[in-house]
Amino acid sequence: MSTSKRLGILLKMTASPQSESFAWYALALEYRGLGRIDDALATFTELRRRDPEYVPMYLMCGTMLTESGRAAEAREWFASGVGAAAKKGDHHAAGELEAALATLPQ
Fold first, then answer.
1. Total number of domains in the chain
2. 2, 11, 71, 81: least surrounded by Cβ within 10 Å?
3. What is the secondary structure of 28-41 as a DSSP string?
4. Residue 16 DSSP class
């Protein structure tokens, strides 16, 4: 499937008020893969507004921001993710987020 077709499908999926969190997550990852970091961040931010307990977004967004040289923003995403993962009792995800947080420069 072409990138533009995949992007179009994901945009349609997220257009619905009842859209699932995974559709927003997939859209953010698609933007990331296209190098559209600001669009990816806006999509992750919208997902966070809609579903702050969707833990996978925190690691992926933080990683993207780290790779983009935006450590301060990455730190906030990782730290928020640790809290969200702990709240859900997801110790594995919390550990991954804490490890990612520890790699950032002070």
1. 1
2. 2
3. HHHHHHTT-HHHHH
4. S
Residues 6+ apart with CB under 8 A from 2: none
Sequence-ordered strand ranges (E) for 33-87: none
Cα separation, 64 vs 103, in Å, equals: 14
Q: Report CA dihedral (44, 47, 49, 53) to the nearest 10 degrees.
A: -110
Tens-digit pLDDT profile for residues 34-68: 999 999 999 999 999 999 999 999 999 999 999 99
Length of the chain as a residue count: 106
Q: Is the sign of the CA dihedral 87, 99, 68, 31 positive or negative?
A: negative
**Would you tell me how many other CB atoms lie within 10 Å of the CB of residue 93?**
19
The enclosing domain of 39 has a CATH number of 1.25.40.10
Q: Say if CB 71 and CB 65 are below 8 A apart.
A: yes
